[in-house]
Amino acid sequence: MHDLLSWLGTLPTPLLYGAILVAAFVENVFPPLPADTVIALGAFIAARGNGTAFAAWGATMIGNVGGALLMFRLGQRFGMPWLEHRFPAVFTGASTQALTERFNRQGILAVVVSRFLPAVRAIVPPVAGALGIRTLRAAVAMSLASGIWYGVVCWLAFHAGVNAELLLNRIAEQQRLIGVVAAVVAVGGVVIFAWRRRSRS
Length: 201
Prior knowledge:
single chain, 201 residues, mainly alpha, 80% helix, 0% strand
């Protein structure tokens, strides 16, 4: 971490924003890149110089949503068989069926909620594309989730004082908290759907 912090500290502000953008983009294409760490430390360095929280957040959003839309388009183009080949450890027969049922059942809610879950958020865009969710709806859902999460990351970075270790610890805590909330929302959605389905029958 200290090497990364030192390297980011040598970059002029425009290149620092560029590094943040690239990290946010690549996270979607080559998971599990630790993009949160790069973005948090980049925003932290920007806060010590002439950067702004909005610019750091903006660079993150452009990179993250751009990478997500690229993977969405690939999923749309090649479908679930391509995903099963690309992520064999994730897409087994049972997990593919469960994920497909969840997206078909919850739609956009599944896209938003799943983008908050660190273990699965990178595969959400291509799955959404493969399952035929409309591009505009998927883009809005992914932008909403990324905007909230990385808004928190950038806000924490600009209020971390001079302690990078404290920043990363706070982000890890927020990630766990948001992950728990997202999981609760997902379970709640399943329960409500099942209850409504039983009520109609």
